[in-house]
Every structure is written in structure tokens, then in C-alpha cells.
Write a sequence for this structure.
């Protein structure tokens, strides 16, 4: 069974929904950001000391390993938008886009520092990044608005996946 892969912008709730969905399905859950931090260093530190290209290289390795191990995978917001990544991930997994608007990103962005947004992201910055990435996220096999209750979203995803994966 191909893994269920959650993609979408920062602050869409991929980790929360992914974890709930994995529990509901009774399969393992992997968050690629957590995995990078477990294997290497905090993401903020990787960006600061090694730069984004090196972070993306480590991310590619972690995504590849996650796709091989299966279950539910929550990707960091930029992973699916890297060159060649969407084609590969769409072929190897069932991909769900948790769609979120700039408003919601700005509301939630304070929960931790994300290097690409900085400590106090502006609407312009969020919109610019969102516009660049949405055409890629839109290639997902299913799109869900990420505004709803995480448990309800996880439930919908689990039902879709159980049907789609057959
Ligand atoms: C990034 C998103 C982050 C993390 C890194 C880069 C991005 O993950 O991978 O800061 O390029 O959008 P979340 O989407 O889990 O915040």
C-alpha cells in the first residue's frame, strides 16, 4: 500500500492531522521535519549554519526513506515544491493537499520560528511564497481545506485513503 503523504504550506496543520489520521488507520506516522531534527539538528540551525540547499538535500534523503517505510507522512512545506519532487512523490504515494490561506498562516505563524518566514512574517512574504507553491500543491490527488476541525479532517482523509489505496 502506497503511503499517505500530506503536503501543503507551513501552518496548514499537516503534523496534527497526519498524526490523527495515522492513529485512525493504525499505521506509523512520520513527520519529515521532526525526522530531520532527530537525525541532524534543529531546522533553524541547519538553515543558519549550512544553508537552504544543504537543508533540502537532507530533506530529500528523509523524504525518500519515509516513502520507503510507508504509513502516513507529513512533509515540510517546501519538500513537495522542490524540483522533480512532486512527480516522484505523486508516483510513490497517495498525496493530499491541506490547503490554507494567507490569513490562517499569519494567525498560526507565531507557534514557532520558521526560517523562510522569519519571526514576524508579513502578508506579502506569505502571499508570495503561497502563490509560487500552490500550482504544485494543486497536483495532489485530493485537496482538503485545512480550516476545519483536525479530527474531522483526519477522519475524512482516512476514509478517502482506505478507498483510494485499494
Ligand atoms: C519549510 C517548511 C517547514 C520546514 C522548513 C522549510 C518550507 O515545515 O520544513 O522550515 O520551505 O515551507 P512546515 O511546513 O512543517 O512548517
Amino acid at each position: 500500500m502506497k503511503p499517505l503523504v500530506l503536503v501543503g504550506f507551513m501552518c496548514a496543520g499537516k503534523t496534527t492531522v497526519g498524526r490523527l489520521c495515522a492513529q485512525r488507520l493504525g499505521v506509523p506516522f512520520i513527520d519529515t521535519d521532526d525526522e530531520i531534527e532527530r537525525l541532524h539538528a534543529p531546522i533553524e540551525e541547519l538553515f543558519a549554519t549550512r544553508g537552504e540547499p544543504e537543508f533540502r538535500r537532507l530533506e530529500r534523503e528523509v523524504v525518500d526513506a519515509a516513502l520507503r517505510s510507508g504509513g502516513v507522512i507529513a512533509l515540510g512545506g517546501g519538500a513537495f515544491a522542490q524540483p522533480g519532487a512532486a512527480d516522484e512523490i505523486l508516483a510513490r504515494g497517495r498525496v493530499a493537499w491541506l490547503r490554507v490561506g494567507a490569513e490562517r498562516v499569519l494567525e498560526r505563524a507565531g507557534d514557532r520560528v520558521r526560517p523562510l518566514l522569519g519571526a514576524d512574517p508579513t502578508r506579502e512574504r506569505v502571499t508570495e511564497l503561497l502563490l509560487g507553491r500552490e500550482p504544485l500543491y494543486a497536483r495532489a490527488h485530493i485537496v482538503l481545506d485545512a480550516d476545519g476541525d483536525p479530527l474531522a479532517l483526519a477522519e475524512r482523509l482516512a476514509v478517502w485513503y482506505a478507498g483510494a489505496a485499494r
